[in-house]
Design goal:
Blueprint: E1 10-12, H1 14-22, E2 26-29, H2 33-39, E3 46-47, H3 50-55, E4 65-69, H4 74-85, E5 90-94, H5 97-103
Parallel strand pairs: 1-5, 2-3, 2-4, 4-5
């Protein structure tokens, strides 16, 4: 599922992310643990810091669809590229990350 400029992932907004999450798509947060205390996290997401994900991506992927997010959408795009390299077919990058999620009035958890 190529995205813009032949990226191996789709760049999605909060509304699309919510729909995919409701369908059961895996959600991975690639920020550092300390960032959760600062910005919160999307409920149900799995925290896998980007360096950990890059070191061993196959350990963290389940199924064939994943949404990645970070603070603003840059680190999560890198994670999407790596997941594509190990064969995950349906990848999504939450553009604007947790910042846009909160700006849209969506709930976050600080634990």
């Amino acid at each position: 599922m190529p995205g813009a400029a032949d990226e191996p992932f789709a760049r999605i907004d909060v509304a699309r992310a919510k729909a995919l999450i409701a369908e059961g798509v895996q959600l991975i947060d690639v920020r550092e643990p300390k960032e959760i205390g600062e910005d919160g996290k999307i409920v149900g997401s799995l925290l896998v810091p980007l360096n950990s994900f890059l070191a061993n991506p196959t350990t963290h992927v389940q199924g064939d669809s994943i949404i990645f997010y970070c603070k603003a959408g840059v680190r999560s795009a890198i994670a999407c590229e790596m997941a594509a390299a190990v064969g995950v077919p349906n990848l999504y990058n939450l553009e604007g990350g947790i910042i846009d999620w909160k700006r849209a009035g969506e709930h976050v958890d600080y634990k």
